[in-house]
Fold:
Amino acid sequence: MEKKKEQEGFLKYSEQVRLAKLDLKSKALLWFYAFTFNWNEKRPSHYTQEQICAYVGFAPGTYQKARKK
Structure:
């Protein structure tokens, strides 16, 4: 029987987002954060609210609501 490796970085984070009891918009925002995070250096990337809204397809109000959750 093969021993299961402990998940690290993006895989561990993605599993937590997938299982979280959140609405779809909140999960979409978390996926964007995960996708743009620099996992090797453990540093977030810096996008403005306008850039995030453009990439994810959210209106600014939708972004604010999803971010609060």
